Amino acid sequence: MLHTVNKSPYRSDSLKLCMAYMQSGDMVLLIEDGVYAAMKGGSSEALVSGSSAKVYALGPDLKARGIGSDKLIDGIEVVGFDGFVNLAAENDKVQSWL
Known about the structure:
By secondary structure, this protein is α/β, with parallel strands linked by helices. The chain has four helices and five strands; from the N terminus they run βαβαβαβαβ. The longest helix has 10 residues, at 81-90.
């Protein structure tokens, strides 16, 4: 399953809830303000780094918020809109955490 998180971890518990429901093989895509969870030294670094899920961040949303690849937690893969579509197509379900 692909989980999408679009809320900042500084304003919502969406990412924490998402991670609590993760199952083996699930993926997380951080979009919109959710990309703030991808930053090194942020409040979500331990949660994201400690997850067994593969975590992705949407490149255009990172760019729009001035977050460069040098600021990302190790292991997070940046994808474009085409990557978003591919992730959605690869998974039988998509769960949006609002």
